[in-house]
Amino acid sequence: MSTQVPQDILDGLTDVPMPRLPSDRAAAEQVQLEGLPLPVYRTGCLIVGSGAAGLRAAVELARRGVQTAIASQSAWGGTSACSGSDKQTIHTAQVAHSGDDLHALAAAIGAGGAMDADTAYVEAVGSVRAMASLQYLGLPLPQDHLGGTLRYQTDHDTVGRATSCGPRTSRLMVRVLADEALRLGVPMMNQTTVLRLIRANGAVQGAVVMRARDRCMANPTGLGLILAPVIVLAAGGPGELYRDSVYPNGCFGVLGLAAEAGLDLVNLTESQFGIGTRREGFPWNLSGTYVQAMPHIYAVDAAGREHNFLADYYPSTQQLAANIFRKGYQWPFHATRMLDFGSSLVDLAIARETAQGRRVFMDFNRNPVGVSGDLPFSVDRLDPDVRAYLAQAGALQALPIDRLRHMNPLSIELYRRYKIDIATAPLEFAVNNQHMNGGIAVDIWGQTVQPGVYAVGEAAGTHGVTRPGGAALNAGQVMGTRAAEHIAATGQARMGTGDLANAPAVLQAVQAVQAVLRPGSALTPAKLRAAVQKRMSEAAGILVDAATVQQALAASRALNAAIRAQGIAVARPSEAARAIQWQQMALASEAVLTALDHYIAAGGGSRGARAVLDPLGDGLPMVTSGPLDEARFRLERPSDRACQIVLRQNGDGFSVTERPNRALDAASRPFFERDWPAWLTGAIYQHNHG
Ligand SMILES: Cc1cc2nc3c(=O)[nH]c(=O)nc-3n(C[C@H](O)[C@H](O)[C@H](O)COP(=O)(O)OP(=O)(O)OC[C@H]3O[C@@H](n4cnc5c(N)ncnc54)[C@H](O)[C@@H]3O)c2cc1C
Q1: Ligand 1 pocket, 43 CB below 6 A?
Q2: Helix axes 169-183, 117-136, angle to 10 degrees
Q3: Does the beta carbon of 49 lie inside 6 Å of ligand 1?
């Protein structure tokens, strides 16, 4: 039975208003530093970022009575609030029919390697609680009439553990968590960019910030201090690192800040790339039903001629259509899926078209155009898995737009909100960067190597090579909760009253921020943006090779040396925070390239997001006309799965080490009487590995 979903229900899941913030508090103290009157704020725990992960940590801390404040560059900005796919997914423990085996789920989370087994298990076990508590807060996850959660299969997931409230799942998560944080009275310092951590006496003491509301004649950039003995970095991923990106605008993350604070960065080689519409228009992933509806995909050259380029890659119409379909749940590019006419040939083909300057479109009013010499497309001639799925979904209509409308009407509504009507016009898209699997290194409680500093959400490098779709949102919820539990249980977050604002460490941190801003420098935020993004998209996208990465690394080191020597000029004081973020992004770019260079130079092969091109490689994609030598790539070395690449800032560069994945003793079973005392006494918080 198919039920027509009324427009007001579709609207409610698409337009998700955010709560009004109470008026922001003014600082109770001020200190005179560097000739500036700096406002000083104090709290027990400072959370940097108000995405789904930061808000989860805030709620869990406030519930435990820890004095907490959130500082956010943009309260309802960031990836959770502003991005999505056709259905944003949250990964859950449980499968449709028979419950789940948490060890099997942990194995699926870590299946791509370079993943700590204890963290994978923590995320698996924590998923049950994360999901139930989101439902308790009002997240409308879909159920059947018996109360079972509706689930489906997503990327790197073989048993259908994903669920979704529609295209705005993560925004809805932000809303329910924000409502709860505000109800609990957590102060939200909006338009407050955290720029540098302050460390003294071996521990974190707070952060230097720029805050729009504190800009004045005497302090034009709004520089200020937030003093706190505990900081949770929940600033999301480095979306601005790439030109070709499906992140919302203005996502910087804090990888550069973390490096400057002496934190370890891990797994920076691992990202996700896939097809979507770019952030210059409306950034959105084209996964799930967008591709399962099987639109016609074609390129247009400078002369306006159309090219049915996928026919050059797949020898039969049925294979061509099936691989468009499979992008639905094999969304991220994966090198080995270029073999055997797999679905990542679609990404490769699109990337090669755009590299030639052609524009690529999806047309929902045309079925895939067949391969010449083969039969035309027909819903009666589909691979068995494709046909079975569409038949079950009742989506065997003649045209892609009708199949899409039937399976997921919200997906059409969503683009209409941004004045793009995919029911009437083709949609331009490309292969884009969408997620950083690596990040700040943390233990099973979200603790970094610096006492008092935690990292959760996309800021933390807790994903291995292939995270299942939805695992990012789940990880943020689980680790946001665990970091809060750890902070509360260890009693570190007691707000200080001392005269720290005048300490030398504070002065040094303020000076370090000020030193970046230099009028008259030839470097500006716009120039840095152009240089960093071009380099990363062209040298560190889905296709990489040793020589190009090496050159890009050298260029990126030179850029950072120039920033150190010349600083960055801003046109107006309100640009100052962005300038520091670009300085830190240039550093993050060097870190990613350092890790990639290390990996490739040591013989590392293709895995996850990237194919390592190599004329001597054993991976050779076949296309319609035969082998595609240009895309010959190195296969992954199994030994690389067992370890992770760790970077730490060292002088003007980074030191690189490798460490084995943390293990989990799968044979050990909790035993109530033996283990209860550790819970009762808080001894569990002393365990920092599984
Ligand atoms: C198009 C797209 C689709 C995706 N689909 C899925 C999916 O289906 N399932 C899934 O699990 N994951 C998905 N992801 C990934 C997932 O959405 C993100 O990893 C997750 O939302 C990150 O949440 P977060 O809370 O860590 O960070 P964000 O939600 O990005 O929040 C970061 C916060 O930090 C603030 N901030 C940043 N820097 C600073 C600073 N210096 N000072 C102060 N504040 C700062 C920002 O304003 C923001 O409030 C997708 C990502 C994209 C781009």
Answers
A1: no
A2: 70
A3: yes
